[in-house]
Amino acid sequence: MKLVNEKNKIKILLTILGVSMFFGVLIFAGGQVLAQDTFQLQPVGDAAGFVNTDIRVIIARIIRAAFGLLGIVALCIVLYAGYVIMTSGGQEEKIANGKKILINAVIGLAIIMSAFTITHFILQALTGAIGGGGSDREGSASAPIFESFSGSGALGRIIEDHYPERSQTGVKRNTMIAVTFREAVDPSTIITDTSGNGIFGDCREVAEDDTLNWETDCDQLITTSVQLYVTPAEDDEATPTYLSAAAMAEPDAEGNYYSFIFRPIQYLGNDIEQVWYTVLLNNNIKKSVLSGGDQVGVFDGQRSNYYLWEFETDTGFDFDPPQVRSISPVLDEVIPRNQI
After folding, report:
1. Can you tell me the distance from the alpha carbon of 176 to that of 260, in angstroms, rounded to the nearest whole number?
2. Cis amide prior to 164 (ω within 30 degrees)
3. Which residues contact 281 (CB under 8 A, 6 or more apart)?
4. In the 8-state DSSP scheme, what is residue 309?
5. pLDDT tens per residue across span 190-247
6. Pairing, β 168-171 against β 306-313
7. Is pTM, for the whole model, over 0.85?
8. In sequence order, what are the beta bridge partners of 177?
């Protein structure tokens, strides 16, 4: 009888170790999979440092921590059940109590893993419904109301706004590209002073009977700093051809440059099909020395040393000038001081 009890103890111990190892791997590796595969992000590192972090990564960290804590508790219960059984001394009542604890712990682990699977599915569905990637070329791909710039290389900490918007479709062929930075930028790192007048982002004066030539009469974009090119197909390994553009900018009252407009020399796209374009800003763009300190790249200290986005052109043009539909306040209107 004692030999039988020892054999049963060995079987139960092996079962406990197997269950512990199996669920331990699933729980601790599962948190990594949830943070990486569901959101197609890099593995989540430190649990702290939520500032300037994608909200999806924060959610993944919280979920991973919660499931990890529950898994540790369940595994502790499994080990406790094994301890009760192994120290029972052959007493049937203690053995039965240990088996009961073990069964409940296994059921709890099964519930935890089921909740993990359901949560993984829901978050994956929500992620696909809310935003997705920036290069989704199927469907309407309407521009978001709020552009966070997350996942674009620099997480938008230096880029305040740009046009066209990310993944915007139906952009007219004669559009211009506009970028606004949060910090003052050295215009000489974006614009070539074609006229040689020391002013960056202007055009020469032309005679009344002459036509302005955007390529020869206006300052030009430095294509090693800002690159505009046709988005290559997935199977296209050719080096993209950067498009030239006239560059325009105007400093503020303190002489700082924040916003830049680029007008492609040739019209974008064609009249047959829609064409996707990529705009890439790299670290050749430097911060203005007027803002203090040494001149450094705008993406220094950022998550990545670049920022890019895509948009799709239509087959038509837009020559309709903007029209004012309403103004506020109207002429001679008396309004409260805090009215917008």
Report:
1. 10
2. yes
3. 159, 179, 225, 226, 298, 306, 307, 308
4. E
5. 999 987 888 899 988 888 778 888 888 899 999 999 999 999 887 777 788 999 999 9
6. parallel
7. no
8. 262
